[in-house]
Write a structure and sequence with these properties.
It contains 16 helices and 23 strands. It is α+β, with helices and mostly antiparallel strands and 499 residues long. Strand 21, helix 13 and strand 22 form a beta-alpha-beta unit.
């Protein structure tokens, strides 16, 4: 019987299940969106039970489309939106509240409290991260302090904390009937609770954030046998890989050597550069994060530039402004004008992440005149993604001392050829789209497959990688300089909006 690898890709806006063959080709897939819940300005939630139901639904659909069953899979992996935080009852499996999504800003008062005591970077040496609303440790503290009964249950281990990988793994491997409570090093490195130097929960950070150790998952490598899935439709399959979504894309793009980098264009955009087996401290506003750990090998590290809002800006134009009816409509609309009409959109809906780390920033549209049309807004929205990526590239080059030779891209927005060309133009380097653009799911599949011997060596994975299309710069330097200077002016206008 021919065997395949399955990957659960649980993202910010949807859940998908993709089945890959040994060459890294997609055999079958299914996807389903889930609700975005906005109880208050700046608050973003997901329903964990909806995500779990969708996960099981898309697994069944993808298997059925290829006429496969769980017996056809050698293993399965999980990749997930990383910092989204939940707490659930160990005995019943019921969430104590909705999941707090990574872009939720309700912890801003906690960030200001801890920053006032020692600065935004007071925990960076240990955690690799600045104090920001982004990360899960303070989200968990908020839940413990604000959801009735949460702290008492967490202190006895009756309530379990996890990011979405932990929630899915626990439920898939038995839930209240013996499910395994674990996370991998990449997801743990986004909590601000793990010492990235030894990949263990840190007693000082737990004390600082008042987090009881009894509720925490066990930290495991990204590629190892975690346990057998007990629930249909994957019953009997070994769960063997877990990677946070951006690290999964790094693995899917086979960036295994120091200096190799990729950028994923999704709800937000995330650029990671492999820095090898030692963490590199950023002085330019980037995050130091775990890249992956395969089995008992030493963990590998990465520098990351995290951008909160890129694809989500297109969703906002569609859903809030009703400027377009479908996300794909933005490219022809943007192409209908020759340039942005000198309009710039800074989508600081929940502050700005790398390299600025400004929680008090909010979105602005700058440069409006009577000349501007909805087409100029569409073009400015796409271009804002490319400018934000250049901000990160410049910080990465400053930290690493390595000049970017080309940019490997993946994620949903790489289908937008206008954006890819503009990205190449504004960076002044080639932009490369791989044959398989679903590299996040592919990375989770690779992690699972390595753990069970489906792939034996990293060279097997490198051999699968191939180029679909390359864009090269076609913009003159003076135009590039004008656009980027105007962008930087617009960014400055977004600072300090929230008192």
């Amino acid at each position: 019987m021919q065997k395949y690898i399955g990957a659960i890709d649980q993202g910010t806006s949807s859940t998908r299940f993709i089945i890959f063959d040994h060459a890294g080709n997609i055999i079958s897939q299914a996807a389903k969106e889930h609700r975005q819940i906005y109880p208050k300005p700046g608050w973003v939630e997901h329903d964990p039970l909806e995500i779990l139901a969708n996960t099981n639904e898309v697994i069944g659909a993808a298997l059925a489309r290829a006429n496969l069953t769980a017996a056809n899979l050698a293993a399965a992996g999980i990749t997930n939106q990383r910092e989204t935080t939940l707490l659930w009852d160990r005995l019943t499996g019921a969430p104590l509240c909705n999941a707090l999504v990574w872009m939720d800003t309700r912890t801003d008062a906690l960030v200001h409290h801890y920053t006032a005591e020692g600065g935004q970077d007071r925990f960076r040496a240990k955690t690799g991260l600045p104090l920001a609303t982004y990360f899960s440790g303070l989200k968990l503290l908020w839940v413990l302090d604000n959801i009735p009964g949460a702290r008492a249950k967490a202190e006895t281990g009756e309530a379990l904390f996890g990011t979405i990988d932990s929630w899915l793994a626990w439920n898939l491997t038995g839930g209240a009937q013996g499910g395994v409570h674990l996370t991998d090093v990449t997801n743990a490195s986004r909590t601000m609770l793990m010492d990235i130097n030894n990949c263990a929960w840190d007693e000082e950070m737990l004390r600082n954030f008042k987090i009881p150790v009894a509720c925490l998952p066990e930290i495991k490598p990204s590629s190892t046998a975690y346990g057998t899935i007990k629930t249909a439709p994957l019953g009997g399959t070994m769960l063997a890989g877990i990677l946070g979504d951006q690290q999964a894309a790094l693995v899917g793009q086979t960036c295994f050597a120091p200096g190799e980098a990729k950028n994923t264009y999704g709800t937000g955009s995330f650029m990671l550069m492999n820095t090898g087996t030692a963490p590199v401290t950023s002085k330019a506003g980037l995050l130091t994060t775990l890249a992956y750990q395969f089995g008992n090998d030493k963990p590998s590290y990465a520098l990351e530039g995290a951008i909160a809002i890129t694809g989500a800006l297109v969703q906002w134009l569609r859903d809030n402004l009703q400027l377009i009816t479908a996300a794909a409509d933005i490219e022809p609309l943007a192409r209908s004008v020759a340039d942005n009409g000198d309009v710039y959109i800074v989508p600081a809906f929940s502050g700005l992440y790398a390299p600025y780390w400004k929680d008090d920033a909010r979105g602005v549209i700058a440069g409006l005149t009577r000349y501007a049309t909805r087409a100029h807004l569409a073009r400015a929205a796409l271009e804002s993604t490319a400018y934000q990526v250049r901000d990160v590239v410049e910080a990465m080059q400053e930290d690493s001392g390595i000049a970017l030779a080309s940019l490997k891209t993946d994620g949903g927005m790489v289908a937008n050829e206008l954006l890819m060309q503009f990205q190449s133009d504004i960076l002044n380097v080639p932009v490369v789209r791989p044959k398989v653009s679903e590299t996040t799911a592919l990375g989770a599949a690779y992690a699972a497959g390595l753990a069970v011997g489906y792939w034996r060596h990293l060279d097997d994975l490198r051999a699968n990688w191939g180029v679909d299309k390359t864009w090269t710069p076609a913009m003159d330097q003076s135009t590039r300089d004008h656009h980027y200077k105007s962008w930087k002016k617009a960014v400055q206008r977004s600072f300090g909006w929230v008192d």
